[in-house]
Design brief:
214 residues
Amino acid sequence: MPGSQLSTGEVYLLFAHEAYYPATAREINTSLVAAASLLHPRVQQPDGARIYECLTRGRQPGEIVPLATLTHELDGGRLWPEVGDWAVVTADLLQLIQDRECDALGLGLPHIARALVCSGPHCEVRVYDPAAGRHRVYGPAERIAVLVEIGRQLVRAEAGRLLQTDGAAYMRHGRTGRAGRVGTGPSLRRETTGASADPAGGEALLRPGRRCRP
């Protein structure tokens, strides 16, 4: 069971969920919230507080941590029962977001980008390319690129500027530096779409032939 020592500085939780369609965007299928949102009284407790501990311990200020990364760190999910019910907690967070009681950055990630953040940090996503007649493999490097672009989205949202809606950016950057690290303060409630969420649209967002290993 993780201990109780907490880090300082804002950290963010990134989690995917069933898509919803607010008036200001086409589709929101992934949300980014400040770690402190887990302590909200409408989030199941003590589960939220325990997940908060896991999320913030040893992180850098501004770090974006996908829920799948926590699962990886918790022995591939084996230790989740000792921490809390992540499904209930994220459902509570999503309800807070939709009720506008929780600041969040809502994202409409393309299907491959979403699959990458839903996978562990060392996992691969294989996608069949009918034009090439083979599978393409997207792995840790592409996952880092997605997190870095989400960090940029967050910075733009907090700066009060229009958000980037070109989904190609999700896979265009981020081969260097810490994954998803951004030096920012509390998040703002914004909703944006990365690009078309259909399989063809998502496929087009990735550079042809990019692989995490030969």
